[in-house]
Amino acid sequence: MTNLVLFGPPGAGKGTQADILKEKYQLVHISTGDVFRYNIKNQTELGLTAKSFIDKGQLVPDEVTINMLNAEVDKNPEAKGFIFDGFPRTENQADALANSLKGKGTEVKAMIALEVEDEVLVKRLLERGKTSGRKDDADEAVIRNRITVYYEETAILKEYYKKQDKYYGVDGVGSVEEITERISNVIDKL
Any binding-site annotation on 58? Predict the structure, then answer.
């Protein structure tokens, strides 16, 4: 199985690339945000548990998040692999994901991080904000904070996957096709 952890700061193009890669390699794209929204909207047991923490302004415990993602993986037993988007965020989550996949006889093959300079990200997000309707894409201070938080959160995971020789930084600047080609060069060598 080809299991990928796709990372990149806000505006790096993760969503665009995940959509292309899932088709090209017949992978299932699991976006943590989408999984949360689905479970909360449909009032699943896990969704209600997650909502109880979110409503109090607390982080959802790793165990709940892992259980949601496991349910998504289990829904797709014939999958050739998965793209994990927005997860893991901590070393504990990375360990839990590794253990979960190991139990299914597979593993994370690579963490692919789209690397884009901050100024390019800010410009992209401000541009996206003109049409996305997302408030967090319209305010430069908020955008810069999101980028800072991303680097603070993921620095640990970069080291975590580097120690396992599974970290691949990919230049996220250029046309969509050029970036897809760079990512594909990594995947094709796994």
Answer: yes
- pLDDT tens for each residue of the chain, 190 residues long: 999 999 999 999 999 999 999 999 999 999 988 898 899 999 999 999 999 988 888 888 889 999 999 999 999 999 999 999 989 988 999 999 999 999 999 999 999 999 999 999 999 999 999 998 888 888 999 999 999 988 888 888 999 999 999 999 999 999 999 999 999 999 999 9
Say if residue 128 carries a ligand binding annotation: yes
Q: Is 56 helix (H, G, I), strand (E, B) or coil?
A: coil
Q: In order of start, what are the domains of the chain with their CATH numbers?
A: 4-181 (3.40.50.300)
Q: How far is CA 11 from CA 108, 143, 177, in A?
A: 24, 9, 16
Q: Cα separation of 113 and 13, whole Å?
A: 11
47 is in an annotated binding site: no
Q: Catalytic residue positions? A: 14, 89, 128, 134, 146
- State the pTM of this model: 0.88
